[in-house]
Amino acid sequence: MAGQSDLQLARRERQIMDVVYRLGRATVADVLKHLTDPPSYSAVRAMLRLLEEKGHLKHTAEGTRYVYHPTQSREKVRRGALSHLVKTFFNDSVESAVVALLSLSDHQLSGEELDRLSRLIDEARAREHR
Prior knowledge:
Layout: H1 11-23, H2 28-34, H3 41-53, E1 57-62, E2 65-70, H4 74-89, H5 94-102, H6 111-128
Antiparallel strand pairs: 1-2
Helix pairs in contact: 1-3, 2-3
């Protein structure tokens, strides 16, 4: 069903969705070309069909081949997955999720990234006071 998050996809399904999002549209051959250690052609075709049944993809016929397209923008899917993550693991607290992200020791934010976050916080404050 459209709207399900990437969290509900198997690892290989997520990899296939990543390829389709990166390319914008993809055939079975395109997906095979871009997967590390790809399964068989028929396995990829079956997974694309399953992703279509789940509502993540749709296809158009171009000659004898199917070309698959995402049903939702990557941004919409990201937001849905992030919302699910915040609700599930952070008791629906955006603040707790942001604190957890900022405290990851293996990733240091650049000055530019910190400036952008600061601007976004300022914009959120301004919206709150309207």
